[in-house]
Amino acid sequence: VQLQAYGGGLVQAGGSLRLSCTASRNIAGINAMSWYRQAPGEQRESVATITNGGFTHYEDSVKGRFTISKDIGKNTLYLQMNSLKSEDTAVYYCTRNLIYWGQGTLVTVSS
């Protein structure tokens, strides 16, 4: 299974970005798909998760700003990021069940 993450870039604080992660196989029935991020010098941390049933979970610092969703027909996972802050700067990774990982896409938020 291959995951391709894209959509990162440079944005000013307060701006928005939408990350996408396209899977090489059908994502229907997958227990959980998640977004993680890793800032320079920091450990990788969970950002958001969506389960097979559509239940979502967010890390506290992104609640109310980020929205995770998926389009099964397109085999794609999304992360809509609004009201971005400088502390959101990181490489963002998508993962399927924490087993398969995408290559990461860099998000840089300038203050």
Give the key terms.
seven-stranded mixed beta sheet; 53% strand; mainly beta; 11 strands; four-stranded antiparallel beta sheet; 111 residues
Layout of helices and strands:
Layout: E1 3-6, E2 9-12, E3 17-23, E4 32-38, E5 45-51, E6 56-58, E7 66-71, E8 76-81, E9 90-96, E10 100-101, E11 105-110
Parallel strand pairs: 2-11
Antiparallel strand pairs: 1-3, 3-8, 4-5, 4-9, 5-6, 7-8, 9-10, 9-11
Can you offer a commentary on this structure?
- The protein has 111 residues and is mainly beta.
- It contains no helices and eleven strands.
- It has strands at residues 3-6, 9-12, 17-23, 32-38, 45-51, 56-58, 66-71, 76-81, 90-96, 100-101, 105-110.
- Strands 2, 4, 5, 6, 9, 10 and 11 form a seven-stranded mixed beta sheet that branches. It has a four-stranded antiparallel beta sheet with strand order 1-3-8-7, with no helix packed on it.
- A hairpin with a 4-residue loop joins β7 and β8.
- It is globular.
- The chain starts with a strand and ends with a strand.
- The relative contact order is 0.33.
Task: Summarize the model shown.
The protein has 111 residues and is mostly beta strands.
